[in-house]
């Protein structure tokens, strides 16, 4: 059986300095896919946006008035069980670039590490993971840490 090709579509209309995040994001998606024993090809969008867009999306969809670092909008393909497709569009992950830069500086690690963390966090949300209680949070955050460690994306 040939390996599945998972796809990350990067949208960076503001031309932020995201280095080789397009390559890294596909490695992240593949690592999550392997860990979760995916059955079909996955596709997801990573969208880098500004604070104004982030706050507008947060107000519109979450009714919260602050600049989030990451927002996820999952597609629920399970709503269409009769469609015979070989690819699952997981949805969109919006990353606020300036917030990522600030958090990388605050936490003392690289921007690429922060972008990776935010992307994994958003990706897991599109897959149904959450952190509404301590049990869910532990499962989700342990998985995030495991994927980052597998790929050698460390805090320092």
Automatic annotation (TrEMBL):
Gene3D superfamilies recorded: Metalloproteases ('zincins'), catalytic domain (3.40.390.30)
Residues annotated as binding Zn(2+) are: 121, 125, 131
- Enzyme Commission number(s) of this protein: 3.1.-.-
Principal place where this protein is found?
A: cytoplasm
Give the cofactors, semicolon-separated: Zn(2+)
The family database entries (PANTHER family) matched by this protein are listed as:
ENDORIBONUCLEASE YBEY, CHLOROPLASTIC
Q: What is this protein called?
A: Endoribonuclease YbeY
């Amino acid at each position: 059986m040939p390996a599945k090709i998972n796809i990350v579509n990067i949208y960076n209309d503001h031309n932020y300095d995201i280095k080789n995040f397009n390559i890294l994001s596909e490695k992240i998606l593949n690592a999550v896919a392997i860990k979760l024993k995916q059955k079909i090809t996955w596709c997801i969008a990573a969208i880098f946006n500004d604070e104004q867009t982030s706050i507008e999306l947060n107000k519109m969809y979450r009714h919260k008035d602050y600049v989030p670092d990451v927002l996820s909008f999952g597609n629920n393909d399970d709503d269409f069980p009769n469609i015979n497709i070989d690819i699952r569009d997981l949805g969109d992950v919006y990353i606020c670039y300036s917030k990522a830069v600030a958090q990388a500086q605050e936490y003392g690690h690289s921007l690429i590490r922060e972008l990776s963390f935010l992307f994994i966090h958003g990706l897991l949300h599109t897959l149904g993971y959450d952190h509404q209680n301590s049990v869910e949070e532990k499962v989700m955050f342990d998985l995030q840490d495991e994927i980052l460690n597998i790929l050698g994306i460390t805090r320092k």
